[in-house]
Fold this protein.
Amino acid sequence: MIFISIDDNEFGHLKDLCDELFGAENHVGVIAVQGNPRGRDYGGIARMHDYLLVYSKSGETQINNLENSDKAFPYEDERGGFETRELRNRNTAFHKGNRPNLHYPFYLNPNNSDENGFFEISLDKKDGWEEVWPKESQGLQTVWRWGKEKSKENLTSGIVGKSNQTGSYQIIEKYRERSRMARSMWYDKDVNTEKGTLLVKKLFDGKVFDFPKPYEMLTRIVEMGSDKESIILDFFAGSATTAHAVMQLNAEDGGNRKFLMVQLPEPTDSNSQARKSGYMNIADIGKERIRRAAKKIEEGGWPNGAGKPDLGFKVFKLDKSNFKMWEGDTSKIENLEQQLLNHIDHIDNASTPEDILYELLLKAGFPLTTRVEKIKKADKEVFSIEDGALLICLDKELNQAVIDALAEAKPLQVICLDEGFRGNDQLKVNSVQTFKTLARGEESEIVFKTV
């Protein structure tokens, strides 16, 4: 699911743009969100609301109902709590004329009611029992929402009779769901922007971000558009409210959702409280919020028996390659000489081992969320990827002992720096043979590469 938050002034333009981008056929609906009950007093009309544009990836996408675990039911029986819903279909588009199979009588025993005052019903006609049909509305004979077979299966346990103040009777459903479909208008306190502002102010001991959305609102969006194993992407992360919401929801329901926050390092105002607090750009605020929100969630524990969620995160910045690229017009001898000299030391001197590691991971087809562990092999630091499936050693002084140790671990792939073999061509040749020899007795070959 795709949710885009826009203000009232941008609605027409951005709605057309989103239709073009995501496909008008994938537009699910619009949710009006009353973020400021008092209104913003400018522009002639005090604006109280913003919009959420909702799009699906395809027609097969489902929007989840919203859970309410604290919901209190007015009635209870041996199966638990419930509320009542009229079994009659109140939509007059469905009536006896076009849904004759949904128009049939129930029979109600007026002398047999339960502890809640509801009456026993049957589909079979019985002496002394009242006949109950779906009543007429707007001159049309309405119908039931359920067919006769489903009603038969749910007699008493799922549907019962109820008396009206007029002395007539109706058939009602015992509705036990603690969830319901999201509404097209949100005006409760959980979507109030002031709530989001107060929370961030409390987390940071000061106002470091203007108009953050309340995390409860983002929790609701995540709940509607994901399952417990989803990856949640926010292209305009701001103060990372979405990350906060994902962690909180995982803590509440035991989910394993992951978040991906994207934010340009937009500078904070030089006179702002954020800059005075040491946050040079918006991305810095988002990172710190994730840390503080995670700490707060951990202090609160895991309700409803949910296991401890993963509260860690990694930060990546878009950058150039750590490896010098072959560039320039090599048809001229001076350019060719310069390129050859550059590639004697082909790794950027400013690159850290972690910089090189993640570039190699991406090039090897591993996602950035891959689990990485630092281990020791023959006193050399080695990165173990996915429980040793890939071993990466970025040491610049390799020896036979570390090569043997890497081979004995029997990974699927090994990557070392070419610079680690500098001045020792024999060791490099022996390393290739070491992995080939070991691979002959294995079902799959160990791939050995140098970069």
The chain has four domains: 1-65, 75-177, 188-315, 352-450. The first strand starts at residue 2 and ends at 7.
